[in-house]
Structure prediction request, 1011 residues.
Amino acid sequence: MTSETSSELQEILRRLSDRSKLRSEATLQADVRQLLLTGGLNLADHDLTVDLETQVGDRRRIDIEVGYTVIEIKKDLRSAAVLRDAVQQLTGYVKSRTQQTEQRYVGVLTDGVDWRAFSLRDDALVEASQFTLSKRTDGTDILLWLEGVLATRQEIVPTPEEIKRQLGAESVSYELDFLTLTSLYEQNKDLPTVQLKRNLWSQLLRSALGAQFDDSDELFIEHTLLVNIAEVIAHLVLEIQVSTLSAATILRGETFNQARIYGVVDSDFFDWVVEIPGGESFVRTMARRLSRFAWANVEHDVLKVLYESVISAETRKAQGEYYTPDWLAEHMVDEVIDDPLNQRVLDPACGSGTFIFHAVRRYLRAAEEAGTPLGKSLDDLTDHVAGIDLHPVAVTLARVTYLLAIGRERLLSDERKLIRVPVYLGDSIQWEQRLDLIDHGHLVIRTGTGDQLFQNELRFPEHLLKNSVKFDQLVSELADRAADSRRTRGRVPSLAEVFRRHAIAPEDQPEISANFDLLCRLVDEGRNHIWSYYVRNLARPMWLTREENRVDILIGNPPWLSFRHMPEEMQAVFKAMSQDRGLWRGDQVANLQDLSGLFIARTAQQYLRTGGKFAFVVPNPVLDRPYWTGFRAGRFRDSSEPIDVSFTNSWDLRRLRPHFFPRGSAVVFGSRVTAGGASRLPIETDRWDGRIPRGASTWQTVRASIQRTTANLSVADEGLVESPYRGRFTQGAAITPRVLFVVEKQQSGPLGLGGGRVRVRSSRSSNEKTPWKQLPALEGVVEAEFVRPILLGECVLPYRVLAPQHAVLPIEGNLLLDGEHPHLERYPDLAQWWREAEYVWESNRRSDRLSLRDQVDFRRKLSIQLPIPPLRFVYAKSGMHACAAIVENPNEIIDQALYWSALTSRQEGAYLGAIFNTPALTELLRPLMSYGKDERHIDTAIWQLPIPVFDASNQKHARLAELGALEADFVSTLQMDETRNFVSLRREIRAALLASPNAEELDQLVRELLD
Prediction:
């Protein structure tokens, strides 16, 4: 954009954002038109139908029509009545154009300041997105919003930034597509084919995720949209033009099938869209939007970006998904796959296919070096590299990644024969341990759904699964023949030719015929186009668990799902399975454990042959924290099939910068060995230091930036003598969601409020989580006695306490009230606040397990503080350094970011303060701390140090108390701006204490005490 054009654009935006001057709709229309032409949206005069004003057909005229978007312009939309009438008028325009063109139209309503995008749903417009133009708005923002609606730019380079901006879950185009698809689903959800696919999707994911699985229509619609997007991109990445293809051809992968490339795009749970009215238009509109990108030269890691853009961070966190940098995956593959032509490789948590990509490239490179003909190498490849994942979108992207790894040139070669991509949708960990799929030498698939009393079964002789390509071909052909539109309803065609072509033995033919008969009946009942997909995705992971089918290499990045983020039902199963394998380290450290250890043990048990090797990315605490002792031992003694592994080495990646995971990471290597051959993870590790270059994606671009040294891990001894103080300290209360409790006091107003009442408003924080951060603040008047001071973690400095924050808490004396308590009515202001807070809580909580009172008093961490002791000692739950102080205010409630204990005397508090705030303590504590990116979670790890209970008669204890009191007095005299960030304040105090004349003696005393 030239400087002259930019200046013109700024002038247009200035006029549009200025409501203060009299202006006509014609003037606004001209400015909006000029904005569209000068804003870099790839529009010319002939693209804008103005006329002036396009006639709809009933004497009404559209203000501006751009492609498949109708724009209606009003002088001022601030009046509710004007807005209502304008939406009604726009609804008529959008409906008319949709009916006339049989294309999906979008509506935009604006007065120049207020911009709203709408999607048609059940003959009514539903608002999908809104943008407000102000005088301070950067022109880029409004143009990006308009581009998301209009979809006019072409040949967009699919950079990570553009992918997020144009296609991500927060983009306007995604919101419009989601609303449209929701409308289509609501209109057709009772059709048998839609019900069947919805039910089978639910069954598969419920078996994998248990109570964690949100069995909702909204999630099914989201998965449908995301898989449909991924399947369109699968065509575009391989330069298949989708503009001439029907929706069914796209979503059922018919173009791939014609090219004899199977398993990339399938008839799956999500192609119900092409079987309903309006589905064809929806898919073609979506394909048109996606075709604007230049996908042909895309790098495979962009597919990873797409996945992370459309799957919310919360969803990925709930499943413990953290995606591996390409350079790390590449180097791990090269490290562990040393004989690629003779090793079968499986990534059991393949995500979008990063490890698969490099494993495929490793195999093909070795095949070329060995002089293997291309046809044979591609034939053998799919039996040598495979993947499994439980997220449908990830699986679709991983399948495309598999083809990208093969490369377009190989795919176009005349030597290339049939390819079936071996990436499966399934549950690698097998939570329900589905042994029922194999029954007396047969694979059994039950086809009944819902409340059917009798479930018909598809039964296949198990030996047919040995050749995965041939089995998949057979199942696909049976399903396709059953669904053939030329087949007369009720008629079952002969399979003689199928038996001959697939060389089906005579003794297996009756069973195959019975399966085909059932498939025909299912199609006749309207429950079709799914069984091939369903059978293959259930069968292959189970087939791989058979001892004779296990692989030589397991590699990948398992889910890092923390125990505290698991639903209650999953926690119970996880605990039981971990106990069976010696991985459970007790309830006290339950929240520090996660799924990755059990995942590795379970997948090694199921998929790895004896003698096979593994390499997994893991959270860094696996290397040295005491709660991973059972995993590091390598003896996983499950009663059904105990296994031993021999750990060989590890990479400690925690010191690399910038961090590429939300938590510190490592890689562990080992092999499955015969019973009794287990060996612990070695103390010696390969420690990596360095700074990863920005944008680096290959090992070659990274290796020079990494310094690798051999180092010994500081493994915490699980048998350490614990401090007797452990039982005395308790974590503070979870005063969350913050918007419902934590408040700021407001001015009482010109007339006051009367005695003992306070006006308050929710105190907001950037750390609030969804959905609470989107909710409006609560405001009101509350009796002063219920606005309690609270100490958050950020209120505590070494030897010093900052001013508390405040929270509305229904504490009457030493009694915690709730909405049902009769005493609440004695306090009308509190009652009004609390009942509004309860309503907000119940409308937005994830489950109905906890009431609002139960939430704030979770595990009695609030009520246990009552009555409040006169003197308490608190320390921060998290931080790079231990930090503690004495609390003297008997009204202050302690928050969950602090641990607290009553003190027997001020002298005991000075003793503990001296220990906690000395650098020697942090140094001794660090090997015991849990961490994310760095050691920073103190929690109860500090009590693994043998801190003795204070004894005033002990000379060393008494001297520590004396020095602690002196240091506390010294810190109290420091002149500090307490409005600064608490991290800076803590750093300033630590620096001052290091210069204290008592520092050296304190350091020596603490080391002697804890040595």
The longest helix spans residues 80-101.
